[in-house]
Amino acid sequence: MKPLLLVDDLWVSFPTRTETVEAVRGVSFTLGRERLGIVGESGSGKSQTGRAIMGLTPANAHIRAGRLQFDGIELLGIPARQRRRLRGKRLSMILQDPKYSLNPVMSIGRQIAETLRSHETIGNAESRERTLEMLEAVQIRNPHRVYDLYPHEVSGGMGQRAMIAMMLVAGPELLIADEPTSALDVTVQLDILRILDRLVGERGMGLIFISHDLRLVASFCDRVVVMYAGKVVEQLPAAALARAEHPYTRGLLDCMPKIGEQRHPLPVLERQPEWAL
Fold it and tell me: CA–CA separation, 224 vs 169, rounded Å?
């Protein structure tokens, strides 16, 4: 069965005054209509991989790949206009913090409706109705009220729900969620994950869930890709994460607190130079 997304030997580099920084180095994986977790520490290349798929890297970045295909479409070979039509309609990305992703001078409802109208030829009444339906789908209790609120008037959890609604309102086939719960408390995290799980299941989407939380990814995703220093060091089923073999993955697992064990101080991950080669 043809994968929804094929990433083969993806490289993302950024030139500086003195050198070229390789943020992503030869990353390869496939994605079907499933939940794929990408984990690793800050700076491991997780977010840059997602942004390269979406075409959201800065203008000075250099991207190359053997293949970067979505539903058979070579993303690096298509015109910019076609890439923009895909982005938001068939490909969407939830960013980390809604405070910096939502327009502060537009109401939440208008922003979601604008996303819908940019990809479909519909009137204001229909776009409003579908926006309200999407706000209700992400478990916002009073969608009519929230429609007219501004981002600063809602909590972090509600802002993240609004961001999810904006990214899903046009019915994408692939959703990239870049640490969508990192700024939220634990109970709200669980609500957001339940929403994503339900919507992915109902719509049959492919989901890339980027996180640094191994325990969260193991419980939520179907498969896991572990990244270190811009490279993929291990891929395995989420259910088998506790049996990971690479020393970096083992080190990350060993650093997590465990109930019922005296672990003070917590072990420190000892990085080896060969991991980055």
Answer: 27
Spatial distance between the Cα atoms of 49 and 29, rounded to a whole number of angstroms = 11
- Residue 23: pLDDT band (50, 70, 90) is very high
In angstroms, rounded to a whole number, what is the distance separating the alpha carbons of residues 61 and 84? 18
At 32, phi and psi to the nearest 5? -100, -155
CA–chain centroid gap for 105, Å, is 25
In contact, 165 and 138? CB cutoff 8 Å: yes
At position 79, the amino acid (one-letter code) is: P
Q: Look at residue 263 and tell me whether its pLDDT is greater than 90.
A: no
CA distance 74 to 144: 40
Coil/strand/helix, residue 33: coil
pLDDT at 145 exceeding the cut of 70: yes
Distance CA 91, CA 88 (A): 5
CATH number for the domain spanning 229: value is 3.40.50.300
User: Where in the sequence is the domain holding 251, given as residue range(s)?
Assistant: 33-53+78-257
Model pTM score: 0.90
Burial (0-12, 13-18, 19+ Cβ within 10 Å), 277:
exposed
Q: Is residue 145 part of a domain?
A: yes
